[in-house]
Write a structure and sequence with these properties.
The chain has eleven helices and 15 strands. The protein has 340 residues and is of the alpha/beta class.
Length: 340
């Protein structure tokens, strides 16, 4: 096998603002694994919040290259991924890109889409939410109007004007629109009690990551007092995170760029289910290539937030992703992704 890559930049349609940062453009890495005339693709979507950049991804890929190019059996994915972890520790988005490329290659070799290789049924996938980032009221209203085809909105909060933002969204959205809130770790536990009570009054379905990831005492205080279910995102990196969250939250949000790829995401889904936690899968600002592995796993989820490519000004790839709010994957082998 041969491992190659290129960096590229994607632009958000609107500046994407959350409680701790704002992004207009981001660097991504297109990873390719080639064997026997076939090529598997993956995308690294690094986040500085998790200690990664496009530069660190490239450095990680350099260390992973000998494992890939020295592999005698490319189809033995479990062994390969274990060896990759041995070559370099947790670099979530770099591992996710290589893992996606290996699974894409395996699917192409078998002539099967990834969902079919794993025995899943795409028809069982939930609808995806569409994210409304922080902004001025008139821009928030414009974003909601542009998202009219999406029946579920995920609202970014974590400011001193949270209720104003939520009221603006409720005024602009259809009365049937389902609202979910992501605070991106902006509140203290006592603030969260009050804010969540307000969210419940507006009919919000659940709240994602209200507290700092390490505030386990705060989550313990919040659990049982919250008026809404709480989903852990930044607090839940990979399957090893899940036991520490028992008794603290009601569900987890999996992201491939955090956990290291579709194989680890599958472990997380089963681990969460065994612990009685609900399962959501989200994304970063990503192209359709980055979204594709999550789309193939979507039938295993309770909630989906796979709108990363839909937030872009232009998507350099075409493939599995959203048609409206519906997650569609198709029957093309592997991930089913092509260049746009």
């Amino acid at each position: 096998m041969k491992l190659t890559w290129d960096t590229f930049t994607i632009q958000a349609k609107h500046p994407f603002k959350i409680s701790r940062a704002v992004k207009q453009s981001v660097e991504r890495v297109w990873v390719r694994v080639t064997a026997d005339g076939l090529e598997g693709w993956g995308e690294a979507d690094p986040s500085r919040y998790y200690g990664e950049t496009a530069g660190t991804v490239v450095s990680a890929l350099e260390q992973m290259r000998p494992v890939i190019e020295g592999a005698a059996h490319p189809e033995r994915l479990e062994t390969l991924e274990r060896e990759l972890k041995g070559a370099i520790g947790h670099n979530g988005s770099a591992h996710a890109a290589v893992s996606a490329a290996l699974h894409d290659l395996a699917g192409k070799n078998a002539g099967l889409p990834l969902w079919k290789m794993w025995g899943l049924d795409p028809a069982e996938a939930p609808l995806s939410s569409f994210t409304i980032g922080l902004d001025e009221p008139e821009v928030v209203r414009q974003k909601v109007e542009e998202a009219a085809e999406y029946p579920i909105l995920k609202v970014k909060l974590g400011t001193d004007r949270d209720e104003e933002i939520l009221a603006t969204i409720c005024d602009a959205a259809s009365p049937e629109t389902v609202l979910r809130v992501d605070a991106n770790a902006a509140w203290t536990a006592r603030e969260a009690i009050e804010r969540i009570a307000m969210l419940a009054d507006y009919g919000v379905e659940f709240v994602e990551q209200p507290l700092h990831p390490a505030d386990h005492d705060g989550y313990r205080f919040l659990h049982g007092r919250s008026a809404l279910p709480v989903i852990a995102d930044e607090s839940c990196i990979d399957s090893a995170s899940i036991p520490r969250l028992l008794g603290l939250v009601d569900g987890i949000n999996i992201k491939l760029a955090k956990c290291g790829g579709p194989r680890e995401a599958l472990r997380m889904i089963h681990a969460a289910r065994s612990c009685g936690l609900s399962v959501m899968m989200g994304c970063m600002l990503e192209s359709s290539l980055g979204i594709a592995p999550a789309a193939h796993l979507a039938s295993l989820l309770d909630y989906a937030d796979l709108d990363g490519a839909a937030l872009l000004a232009e998507d350099p790839f075409a493939g599995p992703g959203l048609v409206g709010a519906a997650i569609q994957v198709g029957d093309a082998p592997g991930l089913g992704v092509t260049e746009a």
